[in-house]
Amino acid sequence: MIQNWTSTNASWRLCGSAVVSLTVALAAGCQAPSEDTEAGAGAEAERAAPAQPPNVVIIFTDDQGYSDLGVFGAEGFETPNIDRMAAEGARLTNFYVASPVCSPSRAALLTGSYPQRVSVPRVLFPQFDEGLHPDEVTIADLLKPLGYATAIFGKWHLGHHPEHLPAAQGFDEYFGLPYSNDMTPDAEKNPNPPARRHPPLPLVEGVETVEVEPDQSQLTRRYTERGVDFIERNADRPFFLYLPHTMPHLPLYVSDRFAGASERGLYGDVIMEIDWSVGEILGTLDRLGLDDRTLVVFTTDNGPWLVKGSHSGSAEPLREGKGSTFEGGQRVPAIIRWPGEIPAGLVSDEIATTMDLFPTIAGITGAEMPTDRIIDGKDIWPIVSGAPGATSPHEAFFYYLRYELQAVRSGQWKLHVPHGYGTIEGAELRTPTFQGTYAQAEIGLSLFDLETDIGETTNVADAHPDVVERLLGLIEAARDDLGDSLTDRVGRNIRPPGRVAP
Q: Fewer CB near the last or first residue (10 Å), C or N of the chain?
């Protein structure tokens, strides 16, 4: 048990029986495709360039649930550092990722575009020869012309060949796993059938493998130390630090320092260590006098992997989790902090997404938005800065799983079209020798009022035919723009994937 431990960065500390992590994120909703989205919403991001552009830190956890944060109702562990961030910044309660699984969610975060648009619609495995196309513009690419130092320490998962690694996407430094920590031949870490043969799990620096099957209990610490060092080395210039933690993706690992620290078992211990990591980053910014010059975002890539039982997080009160287009798969906790610029204690219920980070960061830094491609995200600085009357600039947010367009949200309304899905109801949960498997279910055309029914329990389609008709129109426009394998549609405006040359 960890009691009253104080960080070397004195203002950020772990205390009590638990300390958890979680997430920051700014962003906002989405909209139906239109010609106005061409050239990437550049007009929205236009504002006077700052005299000194702010630093940007994005902390991105893996498979963390909507309620796995103190201020979002976590039980069995505490998150003092992240809770303090919420008290000193903004908490977003209707914040979404663009996919309920790893690789597509990360592609959307970094490019500001739906993963279907950038042709990263599915999880990438070590056997694949594809990744994010090098011609895509990432947040790192966006900031490099302004003189930013750029680094990623953690999980990449957008292609593991040199052509697809972070060095090809605007990052000066990279240290971490190129894909998920369960993509390993080690049966204790991955009880998948033997037919799925993975190579030994690499730890990569730059483009070189520096370790094989690294000690995963040390990854959170090692990523954090790299992040602190990067900030210290670049304190006199603007920097972009992307810290996508491997945890709490399964298999779960925690250092001895945090083992047994929570009342929530190994999962709670892991979250506590991530919260410590957040405290180290924020404490470093404070110690170096960079607090009021740094935007810090903390969020997660998708909902919790519920079939993993006690090793998974919680999405309550949302329905389902990772791999699902119900709210538990794509609505995630989000907090963003920038002292002096974002009002302390702000809570926003406006629809927001990770895709909006791209244009919002462009706006606050004075970076030039791409004009040769569609960017789906919008500048939502008015929302996170507390502008009076600010609302989400997006008419709609589309829920895709792979190339299947399964649902749309517009305002309070969410419409599912008929589709199959994996459900935790009746699932066989994980054991040490069994990875777990979801039960299979079907949903018909279903309309939910998320203002009164956040758990998507009551279909009100028959009572609101006009709403159903309007939302079906939005879905039809998205099918034309981005495609939809449920209806055998190929989108008009998708960009090519990155592939290794034969």
A: C
Q: Please name which of 46, 62, 25, 6 lies closest in space to residue 338, comparing C-alpha atoms.
A: 25
* Residue 431 DSSP class: B
Assigned token pair, 113 = 């575009």
Peptide bond between residue 432 and the one before it cis (omega within 30 degrees of 0): no
Active site residues: 102, 157
Which of 131, 83, 75, 140 has its CA nearest to residue 103?
Answer: 131
DSSP per position, 219-258: HHHHHHHHHHHHHHHTTTS-EEEEEE--TTSSSP---TTT
The CA distance from 293 to 284, in Å, is 13
Read off the pLDDT of residues 352-391 as tens digits, 9 standing for 90 and up. Answer: 999 999 999 999 999 999 999 999 999 999 999 999 999 9
> Which tokens sit at 372?
């040769």
| Interatomic CA distance for residues 431 and 408, integer angstroms | 35
> Using omega within 30 degrees of 0 as the cis cutoff, is the peptide bond preceding 251 cis?
yes
Q: At 90, which amino acid appears?
A: A
Q: What's the predicted TM-score (pTM) here?
A: 0.90
CA distance 409 to 265: 35
Residue with tokens 């090809």: 168
DSSP state of 311: G
List Cα–Cα distances, 102 to 99, 193, 375, 389, in angstroms. Answer: 8, 21, 20, 34
How many CA atoms lie within 13 Å of 92's alpha carbon, on the beta-carbon side? Answer: 38
pLDDT of residue 3: 29
185, pLDDT greater than 50 = yes
Closest CA to 331 of 341, 342, 318, 344: 318
* Pure H helices in 3-134: 42-45, 80-88, 102-111
Phi (first) and psi of residue 296, to 5 degrees: -120, 125
Quick one: which H or E segment has residue 151? strand 149-153
DSSP state of 309: G
Bridge-based pairing of strands 130-131 and 489-490 is: unpaired
Bridge partners, 269 (sequence order): none
**DSSP assignment letter at 317:** T
Which of the 8 DSSP states describes residue 13? B
Burial of 469 (0-12, 13-18, 19+ CB in 10 A): exposed
Q: Has residue 31 got a pLDDT over 60?
A: no
Arithmetic mean of pLDDT, 40-64: 74
For residues 370-408, b (16+ Cβ closer than 10 Å) or e, as one string?
A: beebbbbbbbbbbbbbeeeebebbbbbbbbbbebbbbbb
Which domains does the chain show, CATH number per domain? Answer: 35-395 (3.40.720.10), 400-499 (3.30.1120.10)
